[in-house]
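Batch manifest, entry 17 of 40.
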Amino acid sequence: MSTKKKKVQKIIHGVSLLTEHDIYLFKEGAHFGLHHKLGSHSIKVDRKHGTVFAVWAPNAEKVSVIGDFNGWNKKSHPMAVRWDGSGIWEGFIPDIGHGTVYKYHITSRHNNYEVEKCDPFAFHCEPPPKTASIVWDMEYTWNDSEWMVSRHSQNALNAPWSIYELHPGSWRRVPEEGNRYLTYRELAHSLADYIQEMGFTHIELLPVMEHPFYGSWGYQITGFFAPTSRYGTPQDFMYLVDHLHRNGISVVLDWVPSHFPDDEHGLIYFDGTHLYEHEDPKKGFHPDWKSYIFNYGRNEVRNFLVSSATFWIEKYHIDGLRVDAVASILYLDYGRKEGEWIPNEYGGKENIEAIHFLKRFNERIYASSLEDVQTIAEESTSWPMVSRPAYVGGLGFGMKWNMGWMHDTLDYFSNDPVFRKYHHNQLTFSIWYAFSENFILPLSHDEVVHGKGSLFGKMSGDEWQKFANLRLLYGYMYGHPGKKLLFMGGEIAQWKEWNHEESLEWHTLEYPYHQGVQRWVKDLNHLYKTERALYELDFSNEGFQWIDFHNWEESVISFIRKGNSPDALILVICNMTPIPRYHYRIGVPKSGFWKEVLNSDAPVYSGSGHGNAGGLEASPVPSHGRHHSLSLTLPPLGILFFKQEGSQK
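Output type: structure tokens
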């Protein structure tokens, strides 16, 4: 650290942004705007410009502000603890402000413990591996007012959600400059152009909150109120969100209230006690991730977490929060063996305090955003009513990742088509529970890391079959009820497993097969956004109807997707084998001409060209319990989308 010392006046006590009402809410666990009160804020007091500091450290004996302005001298600027029993320490330092680098030096009342901590409420941090906080003013002139007024239409549950998930440090790099990351501002323009070209409606960023270990992908957070400085300043990140909004793109952030790392400058053992985490490691330590679990029963901790969520929506105009690892929050025995966890007061494994926290979090977000913002749970178990309102007994999330669909589907597509008939139920079973929650179908980063290989690598068969299977997989996802999520690289059929230290394999687009997959995803997005039947009733069984799910012998499924109006119909047929099937009869609900609107086997996608010449007229031949039917050519390892046009009888 720099030891440069500036001439700065002594700390002034008695200056505070906290009112008595703030303290009341703080103690009650109902203060969800703490980022306005705690941390560092540049203000003017008695015509003197300076910065007021406030930090919660109830078990500290001494707290002081140290930084580049005082040579990191722990005796220079001691703070004073409030008289009201809140455990908050405060102080105003004149003559310092925006850009000042600082930490808190804490001397605990316990175990002769002394430590330097970054500010839990800091808006900006030094670029890692440095660890200090930075006083930062958050002024920014937003240009997305039109978006903010109308975004409810794009974020509604009956709107199309085609989410492109990405890691900002490895989407694209600059090899000419030492393979450096793109900055937030560079990312803004290239990403917005690409998302618009590809037709995705939303992006989801892996956690951008400050994290010391780049290899954690952002999931080991120390700065819950600071976008990582690896890619720029807070205003640079605001520019990224602003630019995406001006191009009609929603922004979802990964948010991680489930755990935090053991880096000394972070939240761990903050004031010489287990302040943010549980003291008992059977409740406070995560054995799988070697990290620490928040004490959701402590009012001040709930304040901290819900304030963090509110902050990103308020200050950065974020459109949605995807909450990581909800199952690890809900279950006391998550990742633990018998005897390694403590039951709740009723003897069960449910974390009652965490359930209360999640409900309060969702109630707060939806109350403050007027449902313009959605919350999304990554919840991997069968916990009931995750995406149902808290007032009817649910957890209150807007949507939930469908992990069951993902596991069954990827397992099915990894099978040689010869054996798929023995696994037919892996395709059909998901409809039995498809409407029990508001589901997102995720093909996420979790499926292309830790030796799992790429999505392309999971597909069975030779090279042609792998590409055909991948197109079929994506088509099946877009036809299936539920919102869509695809991790970056999947849309270009990346060969290798994702590596956070490298750019995506953009060079593969020199080859026709990869071009074909990218074109297919682009056309799927276009069809998805323009056909209400594919998204309007995603969460209702009225939006789906089987035509035939019994044909396990030939591994063919067919179904209808419906919208709110009678004319919103899309017919979907999947042939899960490399055998083209001619004169395959499918019952349809209406007569007239059925247009083949998408065919994954078309030559433009590097397919074999089997198809139905753009469509055909329904014949008055009964099939599958319907009065009319189509005699189709089903392409090998292909999916067909048809839309009814013409007369209706």
